[in-house]
Amino acid sequence: MIGYVTLGTNDFEKAVSFYDHLFATISAGRFIETEQFVAWSTGPNQPGLSVTTPFDGKAATIGNGVMVAIVLDSIEKVDAFYQKAIELGATDEGKPGERGKGSGFYAGYFRDLDGNKLNAFYFEAPSA
To answer: CA 122, CA 114: separation in Å to the nearest integer?
Structure first.
């Protein structure tokens, strides 16, 4: 359903470098690139995430209550992705762990260099 999500940035080069390094950990690469917009994805028919300088020329701001969730296929990948984000300068918004006892939902939350909130998560439905 979702093609890609776009986050605004006030430092385009820093944001692109952050996401290049972060997304390399999950084999995601650039699939669209212009002078003020770059998008990454794990494949041609997979959803992506992009950063851009705002079209209207005004400062980019974060959305209160907005969060982008990146689905990964293991707890170990969630831990590694979260840790890489922190190493690249992201700020912690909730260390990786299970959310809701017995829920099967495992996630780590962080804010990128512009303050946009993201999480990496793995979900394994509890067996009946």
So the answer is: 25
